[in-house]
Amino acid sequence: MTDFNNEKILIKLVKAGISKDNKWLVRDVSFEIHRGKILTLIGPNGSGKTTTAKIVLGIHKNIEGEVTSFAKNIGYVPQKINIDWTLPIRVKDFMILTQELTDEDIDQALKLTEVTHLKNRNLRSLSGGEFQRVLLARAIGKKPDLLILDEPVQGVDFAGEVALYEVIKKISDRLQCGILLISHDLHVVMSATDYVVCLNGHICCSGTPNDVAKNKNYQELFGEQASKILSVYEHRHDHAHSSDGVLLKKKL
Amino acid sequence: MIDDFFIRALIAGVGIALVTGPLGCFVIWRRLSFFGDTLSHAALLGVTFSISFDINISLSVFIVSSIVALILIRLQKNTNLAGDALLGLLAHSSLAIGLVVLGFLSFIRFDIMGLLFGDILSVTLSDLLIIWIGGAVIILILSLIWKPLFASTVNYEIAEAEGLSPEKYNILFTILMAAIIAISIKMVGLLLITGMMIIPAAAARNLSNSPKQMVIISIIFGLLSVLIGLYASLEINTPSGPSIITTSLLFFILSLFRLKK
């Protein structure tokens, strides 16, 4: 955590963890999110990424360890969202779902994610990429300190994915907010991120994208392909976990 | 004028339609149709309590339906039984208990058909007061919680993440459902009250582009269904509840034509 220690800290986790029915969902997670920086959580499915995001959001009670939050205003893009057909809702209705926004705020947010033209469209008529941009626009509507994006490129094709990460980068620069990005694809982590935390029930490794790419644990976790920027994700376990996530001895 | 049973029925029906319109939209959006059905089945138990202990029907129904609603929410969290099975379990067991208790009350002459399908003749002046005051309270609460309730309806995670405590509004809304069942049971009947909520709202969905528009159209369809249904009920001597519901179904069928365009 020494790379940007002069920046303003928005949230700090020290050995944070949470257990359910005597099993650890995630444990010993320590990181800081700084204003204007993007921190990415990567890891396989079930590695506790969303749980960690919910710890940051303050949704979970009974948290072990310390969570200190200085963020006053948090924007959130959830992992999965389904708009039922029965619900007639336009983009501009969706923008003010949880917040009061002026027309100007709405237009600014839509402009930043490059979807101004969709303002009057029905949410269900949007494509995957358009929908994700609208989700982003809603989350930044009230200009949050901290933005939490849980797999924000879901249902988006490759070209759209690259464009979407450019938008996220632009949001980070423009609004100077901290961003916690959750992802399971590797190439993105390398391009648009200031700091990477590699999670697998606990922190396997963390650091700048370059440090992590060179890290042995990371290479073992993600396999040889980790060195290639555009790699297909593959989880190779270098160690075994007991059912509560406690590390067992190495298999090798 | 207000002594005329038909005028009383009209005033009652208009009051109910004004409340079922917006509530029905939420029932559809939140997929609570069968939840509403369960609460109205439980209402029969409330009616038997009201006869046994000689308390007001609406009050008794409201209390019993609210309790069943809270039990349901609790069970949905704590059992592995699927939601629909749980709803059926509670709906039919509370209906059965209600009918069994009713069997013990054989010394009282009781119009079970009126209870199931509604009876315009039975609407008294005090019923009107209950409908309009109760309805006003329901609408007031609904308008106060509209924003967080709507947000948690669209997406639970976003509402939770941005500090709106969706669980609380979930519970509040089910209590509002118990309340509308309580005030409309005499008029529409316990088997049909869910229909009164969802059919105008479903018809409105086919014609609307925004949530508020859907609520307004739903209210209009509800009002028209009450007016036409009650008039038909008077003219051709059909039961009031079914006549209202049949009329709203006609509106739904008409709304499908617009949808196809």
SSE map:
The complex is a heterodimer of chains A (252) and B (261).
Chain A: E1 9-20, E2 23-34, E3 38-42, H1 49-57, E4 64-69, E5 74-77, H2 91-95, H3 103-112, H4 128-139, E6 146-150, H5 158-175, E7 178-183, H6 186-191, E8 195-199, E9 203-207, H7 209-214, H8 216-222
Parallel strand pairs in A: 3-7, 3-8, 5-6, 6-7
Antiparallel strand pairs in A: 1-2, 1-4, 8-9
Chain B: H1 5-29, H2 33-52, H3 57-78, H4 83-104, H5 112-117, H6 125-154, H7 156-161, H8 166-188, H9 193-205, H10 211-236, H11 240-260
Helix pairs in contact in B: 1-6, 1-8, 1-9, 1-10, 2-3, 2-4, 2-8, 3-4, 3-8, 6-8, 9-10, 9-11, 10-11
Q: Give the overall shape of chain A, derived from the CA principal axes.
A: globular
Kindly name the structural category of chain A.
Answer: alpha/beta
Look at the structure and give the CATH class of chain B: Mainly Alpha
State the assembly state of the protein chains.
heterodimer
Q: Roughly what fraction of the amino acids of chain A lie in strands?
A: 15-25%
Mean pLDDT value of chain B = 89
| Helix-strand pattern of chain B | HHHHHHHHHHH
The named CATH superfamily of the domain at 37-56 and 73-227 in chain A: P-loop containing nucleotide triphosphate hydrolases
**Distance linking N and C termini of chain B:** 45 Å
Q: Approximately how much helix is present in the residues of chain B?
A: over 70%
Stretches with pLDDT under 50, minimum 5 residues of chain A: 1-6, 229-237
Whole-number count of domains of chain B = 1
The best one-word shape of chain B is globular
Structural class of chain B: mainly alpha
CATH fold type of the domain at 37-56 and 73-227 in chain A: Rossmann fold
Number of strands of chain A: 9
CATH architecture of the domain at 37-56 and 73-227 in chain A: 3-Layer(aba) Sandwich
The rounded Rg of chain A comes to: 18 Å
Top CATH class of the domain at 37-56 and 73-227 in chain A? Alpha Beta
| Most residues in contact: chain pair | A-B, 24 and 25 residues
